[in-house]
């Protein structure tokens, strides 16, 4: 009985907070199209895994700020849909299929970007997978390899392969999508979380190495953002309540709320920032 009353009160409180937050968000998304922010005018960006969710939102924001953006993901139909959508908004984008785990696709991604847009200034490495749930030490070697291959090794390879183009840019930068789970592992997706912690290390190590070439390397660490990828964390009412309780702002994030921080890191406003990670989590705890 008491438990039910607390739950009803919590649900009403959460709903009220959500309504307020939704209105704030509506206001900010309405005004965002009015803001004339051209920080990325003249720059060229690649965003991997950019046909949906966070990658799509990042690509859109970079393009809204003036960048020419190469869209990519594994499925041609998704690439076409995303490119058509962004072009219909008057944004300068092109697209190509790129499964980040395929060397030939990555090669084509850089070649097409050079051919279509003349070079590269910004690489956003955003693709990741989390194909299994369960305790870390009950997982198989194959699952471990698959997650580390796509999430960590392919990020390293994309960075390495982007260098010939980035070294020709006047203000090159790399941004890697890590996760709040890289700071505090999520239950049952431990290996995914560990791979995201590894990316924090990759950012720090390479930022130091690439500073001599003028290439800045930074990261973003989203909290729980409403996308297909994170559905299990908010689909049921119970999961949603737990997720919402874990952040100070008492709501989940939306993909569009990731784009602004990424655009900032890619822009000259962040010209003295390297080796850093911006946590975009509505206040979820983020200590290693
Ligand atoms: N959502 C969250 O709460 C959250 C939180 C923290 C971090 N992140 C990170 O944010 C990034 C994007 O996640 P999301 O939530 O936006 O996912 P999402 O909405 O499910 O979108 C996934 C995107 O990745 C593409 N993709 C999947 N595997 C790929 C591969 N091997 N190569 C290239 N593209 C691939 C998909 O298109 P195709 O199917 O056409 O390939 C799709 O465009 C990931 O790095 C994830 O770890 C997400």
TrEMBL record:
Identify the InterPro entries for this entry.
NAD(P)-bd_dom_sf (IPR036291), Sc_DH/Rdtase_CS (IPR020904), SDR_fam (IPR002347)
Fetch the NCBIfam families from UniProt.
PRK07231.1
Q: Which organism is it from?
A: Pogonomyrmex barbatus (red harvester ant)
Q: Please give one Gene Ontology molecular function term for this protein.
A: carbonyl reductase (NADPH) activity
- Family per record: Belongs to the short-chain dehydrogenases/reductases (SDR) family.
Offer one Pfam family short name for this entry: adh_short_C2
Answer yes or no on keyword Oxidoreductase: yes
Task: List keywords of the entry alphabetically.
Answer: Oxidoreductase
Q: What is this protein called?
A: Dehydrogenase/reductase SDR family member 4
Q: Carries keyword Oxidoreductase?
A: yes
Q: Which gene encodes it?
A: LOC105430502
The highest taxon in the source lineage is Eukaryota
